[in-house]
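Listing S7. Sequence submitted for prediction.
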Amino acid sequence: MRRLVFAITTLILLGLLSACEPAVRDRPFGDLRLGLAKDLLGDWNFLEQDAILLRRDARGWYAMSTMCTKDLSMLVLQGSSGEQILASRYTTSRYAIDGKVLSGPAVKDLPYYELSLDQGTYGGAKDTLYVRIGKEKPKDWRLPVPAQLAALQ
């Protein structure tokens, strides 16, 4: 009888352990077309359908993922312009607008990704902005805005 109880308990525990989710999930790798650079010259572009927050400052563009690092759910922007946060729709995970985790269950900050500007070499439209998902960059990395594009604004 004891062996049966032990066997059943072991099976239940193994089942529970195998159902545990990893603490951190990464987006699948690949290039994502964001659009024509001339259309993305604003200081702030929340590209919800692509799960990217594209920002621009005096040094250039930078892009941050807006997918929860816990479960890869798409985050929503909440709050007023001075107090905005990114929040998960399904968990209590909250992130500051710079990607730092404010509350869990997420434990990893949102990643920043490398950007590139296609000059028409791949057959696409000239000056198309791409983000390379999976190629993480530090928060202070920037893709400079070409002078001819910066003059458009």
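Caption to Listing S7: primary sequence and predicted structure tokens for the chain studied. The mean pLDDT is 87. The radius of gyration is 21 Å.
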